[in-house]
Specification:
By secondary structure, the protein is of the alpha/beta class. It has nine helices and 13 strands.
Length: about 270
């Protein structure tokens, strides 16, 4: 009977030990499963906001969001993808955040949550004076005589063309050429396959004066870029907003703007 009692005590002790250990294992499993890596989706052909240098994706957006997230204790992975697939990648949870010179719009805000704005921008019209020395575009009406106008698909440049030129009846659908990458439009501009490109002004400014390219018109759209997260991901959104607030007016942000907007840098074609 004494042995039976001893065995019962051992069993009870073992059960208590297991009960003590098991919750720890479960909790550890949850933490490990959640992880601290944030996957950033971008389109790495949009200098100076994101582009390849030494086979690494760099740029104003990338450095800014990486600093905010790493300062908050996250590990960061940057993935390049087509610009027009970013929304699907975010909503399907293949990525955690979009950092891609991504304009805050009502349509996009219906399916994703945006951080506070971190950059103000307008659109511009780029032409090549080597091919068309007498070409000037000062208003929407001037687009009517242009054979082909290009823009990157799904960008605010394309939206502007659709709403202000095609829908307004100034040009027809056949005069518009969409591109997966705006760099394709710039190449076709140089070869006179198209005669104008509608493009974010900060990006267009990099090309101005190179091989005859010229910004002939600024389209005031008062756009604001933001980082986009999945709807309801308040944890990540709060981290991004807090980081952006903290960096406002900082020396770091001033230096970052000088680095990417006032210095020359190499783009890998």
């Amino acid at each position: 009977e004494a042995k039976i009692m001893q065995n019962k005590k051992k069993v009870m002790t073992l059960v208590l030990v297991l009960l003590t250990i098991t919750p720890v294992v479960l909790i550890s499993g949850c933490i490990e499963e959640k992880g601290t890596k944030i996957i950033i989706g971008t389109n790495a052909f949009f200098p100076p906001f994101e582009f390849y240098q030494n086979n690494t994706i760099v740029g104003y957006d990338i450095e800014l969001i990486t600093k905010i997230l790493t300062d908050a204790g996250y590990e960061v992975e940057v993935r390049n993808m087509d610009f027009d697939s970013l929304e699907t990648a975010l909503t399907s949870k293949s990525i955690d955040v979009i950092a891609a010179g991504y304009t805050i719009t009502t349509t996009r805000s219906a399916v994703m949550d945006f951080s506070i704005p971190y950059f103000d921008s307008n659109q511009s019209v780029v032409i090549n004076l080597n091919n068309n020395p007498n070409l000037t575009i000062n208003s929407t009406d001037d687009f009517a005589a242009i054979p082909k106008i290009g823009a990157q698909r799904y960008t605010t440049g394309e939206i502007w063309i659709q709403e202000n030129l095609i829908d307004a009846g100034i040009i027809n659908e056949s005069q518009y050429e969409p591109y997966v990458l705006y760099t394709g439009a710039i190449t076709d501009l140089d070869y006179d396959r198209i005669q104008a490109v509608v493009l974010d002004k900060p990006v267009a400014q990099y090309f101005e004066g190179k091989n005859g390219k010229n910004i002939t018109m600024t389209i005031v759209t008062n756009e604001q870029f933001g980082f986009a997260v999945q709807q309801g991901n308040t944890t990540l959104l709060n981290v991004l907003n807090a980081g952006l607030e903290q960096l406002k007016g900082s020396q770091y942000l001033s230096d970052l703007k000088v680095k990417y907007f006032e210095r020359s840098w190499i783009i890998e074609e």
